[in-house]
Write a structure and sequence with these properties.
This protein is α/β, with parallel strands linked by helices. It is built from 19 helices and 16 strands.
């Protein structure tokens, strides 16, 4: 049988409601009072954007929500979405001193959401572009988090920016690929409007290389930022993979963001193949949309699963089942071409390698299979757009990590196409750093404005100078590696 929607409008809306509703003013004050306002503030050091967390929380207590929002959004233009989707448990909240004292950190993410939502709903103009313009034009290719971070920073530095986005709306995965119960697309679209308010122009529904040539862009713009995401989902290369009920995880999530919830089809028994955070988002939403059972199929052990532990626990809370050390060998279907199950085999994993154990095959019934095995690198697209662009052996754009500059002096890059896929906050940070790199390039090597000292480092210092902390990509990579062990 083909899959179909399972819930009515009211039930679907209730099941997909916010997992962490916004604080009331009283709740925000109570939570803000838990902050110790540490002088050295390890939470700031753990934030890829270097938000002055004690400062914005202190402003909540004094009733200065406009100033609080300015503190957040000056550092991170996507403060609203990051408040919802950041892995705060392993970043700012994971570094919170209160966590050591009380085993429960200050809920920095939820406080940040409270402030930014207030600013959005009250249409507070906390940021603005300078009146003086540089006369320079920059093309940003890709309207996802890195592109938005780059565009907003460039606009505030006085440059004219045009964002080219092939989808109908900008925002990237924030608009189309985040679990609905974490963040609705309206949040991302409001942030796009915030970037627009800084004077950034958006050309959506325009695919670079097809609707407009790179030759034309290079003629019209002084510099280019490549903020393309990853490509299509990877293939399993299994028999039966092309039947209708086998879907990509991000395509499934995009349906949830672009269709009425009660119109999204889901199976009765759903298998999600993969072990990352996207797999968790897909399997949990399948259950919330009415699947009777949803199962994660992962080829390695639970300890090797790359999804954050708190995400795994969330899935278990909602009744998700896990099959570890299991790999699909065939997708089974009936005579009418509909999925009926998976043929699976047990595996062993050691030293990073997975081996199928002979004679261990078995069949599990499913009527829907969601693939969450990662997205393909866009190497061919890069070669088509910029034949001389250097590509790393990992399939990502090779660039200076401090400035985002590639081997082509006027081309900069950041986000998933340069780092292979990380968190939203990392993409925004890389876009912002690349904007500083572009500004220096267009200014003949000069940095923007006077260097402003602060308790936590030097804000506005030249990127890569050693004084631009606390945006510390290498340290965060080490932290991610430690958390995933």
């Amino acid at each position: 049988m083909p899959i179909s929607p399972k819930l009515g409008p009211e039930a679907a809306a209730a099941n997909m409601a916010d997992i962490a509703p916004r604080y009331t003013p009283q709740e925000a004050i109570i939570e803000a009072n838990r902050c110790l306002f540490c002088f050295d503030a390890p939470c700031i050091q753990a934030c890829p954007m270097g938000i002055d967390i004690p400062s914005f929380i202190k402003k909540i207590l004094t009733g200065n929500l406009t100033g609080s929002a300015r503190t957040i959004l000056t550092a991170n233009i996507l403060g609203g979405s990051c408040a919802r989707v950041c892995p705060t448990e392993v970043l700012c909240e994971g570094a919170c001193v209160v966590l050591d004292r009380e085993k429960d950190p200050v809920k920095i993410g939820r406080l940040q959401r409270y402030v930014v939502d207030y600013a959005q709903e009250n249409r507070l103009q906390v940021l603005k572009a300078p009146s003086g313009k540089s006369g320079k034009r920059i093309a940003v290719i890709g309207g996802g988090p890195s592109g938005l971070g780059c565009a907003a920073e460039l606009a505030q530095l006085g440059h004219q920016v045009v964002v080219f986005e092939k989808k109908p709306n900008a925002g990237g995965l924030n608009t189309y690929g985040i679990a609905y119960y974490k963040m609705k697309p309206e949040v991302s679209l409001a942030e796009v409007e915030l970037v627009k308010s800084l004077g950034v122009e958006f050309r959506c529904g325009v695919e670079v290389g097809k609707d407009v040539s790179i030759k034309q862009i290079e003629k019209d713009f002084d510099a280019i930022f490549l903020g393309l995401g990853l490509g299509k989902g990877g293939r399993l290369n299994l028999p039966g993979e092309d039947v209708p009920e086998v879907v990509e995880a991000l395509d499934f999530i995009e349906q949830i963001h672009t269709h009425p919830l009660h119109d999204v089809a889901v199976g009765d028994r759903v298998a999600v193949i993969g072990g990352g955070n996207t797999a968790i988002d897909a399997v949990t939403q399948a259950l919330r949309l009415g699947a009777h059972e949803a199962v994660i199929v992962y080829r390695r052990t639970r300890e090797e699963m790359p999804a954050y532990e708190f995400e795994q626990q969330l899935a278990r809370t909602y009744g998700v089942k896990f099959l570890f050390n299991v790999v699909p060998t065939e997708i089974l279907s009936n005579s009418k071409g509909h999925v009926t199950g998976l043929k699976l085999a047990r595996t062993s994993s050691a030293n990073g390698k997975v081996q199928i154990l002979p004679g261990t095959e078995f069949i599990e019934p499913f009527d829907m299979v969601i693939k969450a095995i990662g997205e393909q690198k866009q190497v061919e697209l890069f070669k088509k757009l910029f034949p001389a662009l250097e590509i790393h052996p990992r399939g990502v754009v090779r660039r200076n990590p401090d400035t985002g500059q590639t081997n082509l002096p006027n081309v900069f890059s950041g986000g998933d196409c340069a780092n292979g896929g990380r968190e939203v906050v990392n993409a925004v940070a890389e876009g912002k750093k690349a904007a500083r790199g572009i500004h220096a390039f267009l200014s003949g090597g000069k940095t923007s404005g006077p260097v402003q000292p602060s308790r936590y480092g030097v804000q506005g210092a030249p990127v890569g100078s050693g004084f631009d902390k606390p945006i510390r990509v290498l340290e965060l990579e080490k932290e991610y590696a430690r958390q995933r062990k």
